[in-house]
Specification:
65% of the residues lie in helices and 0% in strands. It is an all-alpha fold. The N and C termini lie far apart (80 Å).
């Protein structure tokens, strides 16, 4: 014999009827064909979870703020990496040829594309034509 599965709507309705007290537990049990112990558990669950109903809006707002804060921390971290990279290389006043020497193609926190953007160079200058013999 398999267990009956009751919808959350039905459980809430039965628990509310039990809370109202207009019918006894045995009357509710026979009306909904559910054991009176089960009705008691649903009633208890409803009482325990009732305060959470009023916090749902705040939880969504808090989650939204956390996502925004994480996004901003990520952005600040990326900008700090870029500032550190520029300070390390002190590239202002150099020619394009001199600036290209400071591009770090490997082991850099910045992509090659972003390094070229920070230097004010066209990325196409990175690609050198290959001579095939």
């Amino acid at each position: 014999m398999s267990r009956k599965k009751h919808s959350k709507e039905l459980k809430a309705k039965i628990a509310l009827d039990a809370i109202k007290g207009q019918k006894t537990m045995s009357e509710l049990a026979s009306e909904y064909r559910v054991h009176s112990n089960q009705i008691g558990r649903w009633k208890k669950q409803l009482f325990e979870s009732a305060p959470d109903i009023f916090n749902m809006g705040k939880d969504k707002e808090t989650e939204k703020k956390e996502v925004e804060r994480d996004r901003l921390y990520k952005k600040v971290g990326q900008l700090q990496i870029e500032v550190d990279w520029l300070k390390k290389n002190r590239l202002s006043g150099m020619s394009a040829g001199e600036k290209i020497k400071y591009i770090e193609p490997k082991d850099s926190a910045l992509s090659i594309s972003r390094q070229y953007d920070l230097l004010g160079l066209p990325r196409s200058s990175y690609y050198q034509p290959r001579v095939f013999l």
